[in-house]
Amino acid sequence: MATIIDGKAAAARLRERVAGEVAELAATGRPPGLRVVLAGEHPASAAYVRTKEKMAREAGIDAAVVRLPAEASTAEILEVVQGLNRDPEVDGILVQLPLPAGVDEQAIVLAIDPAKDVDGFHPWNVGRLGSLTGDLPPDLLVPCTPMGCLLLLEQTLGREALAGRRAVVVGRSAIVGKPLAQLLLRRHCTVTIAHSRTRDLAEECRRAEILVAAVGRPGLIRGDWVAEGAVVVDVGINRIATEDGRGRLVGDVAYAEVEPRAAAITPVPGGVGPMTVACLLANTVLAARARRAAARER
Ligand code: GUN
Description:
This protein is α/β, with parallel strands linked by helices. 42% of the residues lie in helices and 15% in strands. The chain contains 10 helices and 11 strands. The strands form 3 sheets. A 6-stranded parallel sheet has the order 1-11-8-7-5-6. Helix 2 (43-58) links the parallel strand 2 and strand 3 (62-68). Helix 2 crosses helix 10, helix 3 (74-86) runs parallel beside helix 4 (105-111) and helix 6 (144-157) crosses helix 10 (272-297). The radius of gyration is 19 Å and the shape is globular. The protein starts with a strand and ends with a helix. The mean pLDDT is 97. Residues 94-97, 119, 144-145, 175 line the site of guanine. The site of guanine (GUN) has 8 residues, from strand 4 and helix 6.
């Protein structure tokens, strides 16, 4: 039987650590400030944003959501971002994606001050993650979901034990797959990024000692795609229809088939999801500290 990796408990521990750090910052000045920009009412996005605001406030962060109508233009969203860039009490800015159709997402991400980019999506932060080698720079803002995956893997295997392992990341998104591959390289894994055009995806997956699924296709990874003893991280959050009409969340991994073969596996829900939010709070503290240090130097 696989070890079920308890992301909920790991996230609660991380949030508790962050709350301590927030209290220190508050006692010596002010709590970190986080603004989440939500344009429109994409139902999943609205739910994520509510969770981010609630968890941030529970950790003592000065968090608020900036709501814009679904019709907001690129120029209007840019203006909001520029205002948040200038606001000295704002340490972290997160623009919830996807933005409404027609909005230039690239332009918005480029406009965010890299020092406040708690999503780690700005090319400056993306480039720093991918450039050079060795340990992660301690002040680097790393995308939250891949950071959460790495922390769960380190907790499960031990940080040093990642070195030399064959890791297969299924999914090449800028939000998860690509940054996670960079993080695993930094921990000295042998990394393959597989995707929708990969020939014989099942065979690639079977080679993995660490298998991460981040594609958004319910149950894509089948039992016979997974080597005995692999560690499996499921990033997928897919709502599927059920007979009672309420729907149910499932991952990208066919859990019932894969779990008996895996050494360890993250459940959905309760695996990677809670870690994403906890890492956002950790990034907010990181940004607040770095900005305070930079202000002292000026
Ligand atoms: N949409 C889905 N995941 C994310 C995320 O990590 N950050 C933002 N800003 N939007 C998302």
